[in-house]
Amino acid sequence: MRDLSQIVKAYDVRGVVPDQWDADTARALGAAFAKVTGAEAIVVGRDMRPSSPGLSRAFAEGAASQGADVTEIGLASTDELYYASGSMDLPGAMFTASHNPAQYNGIKMCRAGASPIGQDTGLTQIRDLAGQGVPEFDGKPGTITQKDVLQGYADYLRGLVDLTGIRPLKVVVDAGNGMGGHTVPAVLDGLPLDVVPMYFELDGTFPNHEANPLDPKNLVDLQAKVRETGADLGLAFDGDADRCFVVDEKGDPVSPSAITALVAVRELEKHPGATIIHNLITSSAVPEIVREHGGTPVCTRVGHSFIKQEMAETDAVFGGEHSAHYYFRDFWRADTGMLAAMHVLAALGAQDGPLSRLVADYDRYVASGEINSQVADQAAATEKVRAAYAGQPGIVVDNMDGMTIGGDDWWFNLRASNTEPLLRLNVEAKDATTMAALRDAVLALIRG
């Protein structure tokens, strides 16, 4: 019996190879995945990390040992794996550790139709079963075959957003040596785009910078190249290319909340009155803009499982998160940074102004970004903040995900990390002065 609790997280498998897991673990997880999903066939993809070929093949062998036929799609982005799962109507497993350093690897799993598997939807059973090793199986083992779905994935996305008629645009794309280098050429080639590629070579050792665009230092190269080449915009993908960050023609980052609002407006043009999902730390501008365009905004907790669940229950057409995950009903409610990027290109290419002017309409407030504080007692620090603000006139307190406290023209959210002794603070206000004062006051309470 092996304890897999250190690598099986709330939404996926993630850990250091080979210290925390190896091919034997992957084989047991593959067998457990086949058993728990009850699948006669599954699909498996992998990223460019050095450990991905061996781990993904071991997983496939484990699933096949339980009678499941396995289709390996080889190198893929996570949303390409979701496309395979959705279009083939098969459970899927994607080998990636996303933006984590090179020594990490992981698995994102889904049921048929790209339906997510998390702690409450099968991942706990997979963990417990895999902890017992690969079980005996009396029946006939499954087959392992290969299939290339990259062109199908590209064609599907191009069918959702038509870029053929836009004005010519110059776009710098930083793939961070991740899977964007594999998918971007397939999706964007042949369109009215002058693509300036950066770090398209697939290299899971990340020789240029971490494939984590959420960290501002990893955007520096892209920002410089946009300014240097006079590009209309820049796009940065994370390691498994399911998230996309945007910078404007000045090299300034565009808030994921502004992208959420922009895409929401475009989806509401196609689906008047539809529901749009956003998590509770996206900008207040998002629900405002959704209502202004006749849509129904619905707020959820942070995390893709909550977004996808709410999308299924409300039949929402689109959902966006502050972390630049974007979810589409037309894409099996799964997240795809590529499709969000195509919406931005379509919106920009349909008018003559620069991106900075286009997104200004969607960027109404000043945000702090997420600020982490290491605290020994998260609950005590949170209560200290609550005591300082709750009960004052006009103050609203919400406990949906951590604690959100709001006034007339500001709000902040304080959430405890599930895995580290950290409190995460997000602040938004009507202007920079109000935001900075509120941010500093709350941080003083947390860290004092």
Automatic annotation (TrEMBL):
GO terms for biological process: carbohydrate metabolic process. Signal peptide: none annotated. The keyword tRNA processing does not apply. GO terms for molecular function: intramolecular phosphotransferase activity; metal ion binding. Keywords: Isomerase, Magnesium, Metal-binding, Phosphoprotein. Residues 370-443 form the Alpha-D-phosphohexomutase C-terminal domain. Its cofactor is Mg(2+). Pfam families: PGM_PMM_I, PGM_PMM_II, PGM_PMM_III, PGM_PMM_IV. The keyword Isomerase applies. Residues 6-127, 153-251, 258-365 form the Alpha-D-phosphohexomutase alpha/beta/alpha domain. Transmembrane segments: none annotated. PANTHER family: PHOSPHOMANNOMUTASE. NCBIfam families: PRK09542.1. Belongs to the phosphohexose mutase family. This is Phosphomannomutase/phosphoglucomutase. It comes from Yinghuangia soli.
